[in-house]
Amino acid sequence: MSKLLYLDHNATTPIDTSVCEAMLPWLKNEFGNPSSVYSLGRHAAVALNTARYQVAALVGADPSEIIFNSCGTEATNTAILSALAIDPDKRHIITSTVEHSATIKLCEYLATRGYEITWLPVDAEGKLDLAKLEAAITSETAVVSLLWANNETGVLFPVEKIAAICSRKKVLLHLDAVQAAGKVPINLKSLGAQYVSLSAHKLYAPKGVGALYVNRRARYTPLLRGSQEETRRGGTQNVASIVAFGKAAEIALTSLSTAPEHIKKLRDHFEQTLLSSIEGVRRNGSEGLRLPNTSNLTFSGIDAESALILFDQEGLCCSAGSACSSGSINPSHVLTAMGVSRDEARASLRFSLGRTTTEEEIDRALEIIPRIITKLRSAQPVGGSPVHSVV
Ligand code: PLP
Q1: Calpha distance 348→213 (Å, rounded)
Q2: Ligand 1 centroid to residue 12 C-alpha, Å
Q3: Which residues of 183-197 are buried (b: 16+ CB within 10 A; e: fewer)?
Q4: CA 228 to CA 68: how far, in whole Å?
Q5: Fewest CB atoms within 10 A around its CB: which of 50, 73, 112, 361?
């Protein structure tokens, strides 16, 4: 079995050792319900409070603005549905064609319930046209919901400018910061967004825990009704995972001053080497306005699904498109929205580095990838479509 070479940190991250240690007591002796009045319960309530401060600090929010929940997807669903509940006469939502499925699937569903959805396009670099955003806002618009950072290309949307437009037009703004948190500085105090989605498993904490930031002046309607989280999100809190989320946020905040620079250096070396040493390689997404860890590349003429299988045999994990119900890979909606052809999108791979990625790992990846690309290309019929039988 080859040693693991994990370059898929945008999919999920390994749990940091000290995050795991921080959560363990809450899975063992400290099993109290944070709503219970005796000491065991109060310990858990204090731990939740600490985590709320830690997560708030990572994004420059007040702890009272952080509502813990089950995941980034829940945060996004809650934010959009909450905005819609405020004024039932406003039945227009603005989002983009490159959002995460958490937003896309909800908006597609809402369209079937009579809501009007404006899908803002992006250009070839994955950038939004802010004039189009401004022009799309009408008196019927209930909410604008956009990514902070794209999970497939790493492209950063200009959130300050977006927030300024929404504030000028007096429309609610939800931002999906699931990929941005911990990778770029975030200061929600000065931003002016009403709702922001966060998820712990992109931050070296476990899956199945997230948070929604709700600006203290914003109106809000819960998705799950119950007494927890001050009635803002019902359901007994996942104490151990929330403690882990808090610890992970604390570490992410400390490492923001050094880690992104280190990761960017490795990513740029990785990307430049592949772009210059292999024929027919192209970067997807704006070079400058990107997360420091993400590299999305098209290797013309290959089948990304076959590449993933051959990489896996060498221990290398990365991503391509999204799995469809038959188990094969659909061309990425993000890349096709950027004008990449379906064939080129099917030949594209996302590599995402992490805090623990080393120079040695990048060197190993730079040995494996060109070799596999050559192998895949030599297995293609000249001028024909990619063959799957190579693997
Ligand atoms: N938004 C973005 C940009 C993501 O990348 C993800 C996860 O991949 C999500 C939302 C959903 O987060 P979760 O997996 O916690 O539901």
Answers
A1: 34
A2: 9
A3: bbebebeebbbbbbb
A4: 10
A5: 112
* Annotated catalytic residue 317: no
Q: For ligand 1, what atom is nearest to the CA of residue 208? A: 15
Whether 177 lines ligand 1, by a CB cut-off of 6 Å, is no
**CA of 352 relative to ligand 1 center, distance in Å:** 15
Ordered mean pLDDT values, 10 residues apiece, the chain (391 residues): 93 98 98 98 98 98 98 98 96 98 98 98 98 98 98 98 98 98 97 98 98 97 97 98 98 94 97 97 95 98 96 97 64 96 96 97 98 92 40 21
Catalytic residue selected from 166, 317, 318, 324: 324
What are the start-end ranges of the E strands in the chain? 5-6, 66-69, 92-96, 116-120, 141-147, 172-176, 195-199, 210-214, 281-283, 294-299, 316-317, 322-323, 329-330, 348-352
Q: Whose CA is closest to 345, among 305, 313, 317, 374?
A: 305
Looking at residue 329, its pLDDT comes to 74
Residues 291 and 183: beta-carbon distance below 8 Å: yes
How far out from the chain centre does Cα 30 lie?
Answer: 31
Task: Please give the single-letter amino acid code of residue 335.
Answer: L
Model pTM above 0.85: yes
Top mutation candidate among 8, 12, 73, 184 for ligand 1, by most atoms within 8 Å of CB: 73
Query: Among candidates 389, 391, 388, 377, which has minimal Cα distance to 299?
Result: 377
Q: What percentage of the chain's residues is helix, strand, coil (to nearest 5)?
A: 40, 15, 40
